[in-house]
Amino acid sequence: MIGAIVLAAGAGSRMGCDKATLRTSDGMSFVDAIEATLAAAGISDTRVVVAASAGAQKANEVVNPDPSRGMLSSIHCGLRALDAEVVAALIWPVDHPLVAYATVGAIVEAFNDAASPIVVPTYGGRRGHPVLFSASTFDELLHADPAEGARAVVHAHDDRLELAGDDPGVLADIDTPESYARHIRTPL
Fold first, then answer.
1. Which residues touch 90 (CB under 8 Å, ≥6 apart)?
2. What DSSP designation does 7 have?
3. C-alpha distances in Å from residue 101, one per residue of 36, 38, 134
4. In the 3-class helix/strand/coil scheme, how is 83-94 assigned residue by residue?
5. How many separate domains does the chain show?
6. H-type helices in 41-186, by residue range?
């Protein structure tokens, strides 16, 4: 089983508000859009990591008691909450809500076919999100240097697969009002 961890515990300081509740152009919250994409791609074991101040509102939400420790602390919370049967997990920052479900399917298919421990989607030669980590890398993620985060685990694996695709959504990092206006085509 493939799982997913949606990282939604950040303070949204550059955006000036909680990014998880921002709306896509079709009116869905960023979290709901990501969950819908995961469901369409057949990913059913999803954990959404939220800040303690938000509190867990849904059964699949996991509280990060101290998100100020960085994104890696949210990854740790999500990994610990995944079903034990999970063989790999997509790590998906909430500020990347525009990834197509076909891209998620291609990432999972590439993982199943190539047996690479890490699959990173790319667009135009640039790495994007979500990144799929095999369960064989979970211990590395749990022991990674917080200053370097998951990126250090990705870079430590020459056997990672960088999957070229035609989905600009993997690079659409919506973390400022300007990037929101550019990608969603409406000001905040």
1. 2, 3, 4, 5, 38, 43, 104, 107, 130, 131, 132
2. E
3. 9, 7, 19
4. CCCCCEEEEEEC
5. 1
6. 71-81, 101-114, 138-142, 150-156, 177-184
**Helix (H) and strand (E) counts for the chain?**
6, 8
- Nearest CA among 101, 75, 60 for reference residue 10: 75
- Both tokens of 51, joined, read 């800040």
**Cα–Cα–Cα angle for 168, 102, 89, nearest 5°?**
95
Residue by residue, pLDDT tens for the chain (188 residues) are: 999 999 999 876 676 667 777 888 888 989 999 999 999 999 989 999 999 877 667 889 999 999 989 999 999 999 999 999 999 999 999 999 999 999 999 999 999 998 899 999 999 999 999 999 999 999 999 999 988 999 999 999 999 999 999 999 999 988 888 887 888 866 55
Query: Domain span at residue 173?
Result: 2-117+125-184
User: What is the domain-level CATH number for residue 109?
Assistant: 3.90.550.10
Closest among 67, 63, 60, 73 to 10, alpha carbons compared: 67
Whole-model pTM: value is: 0.93
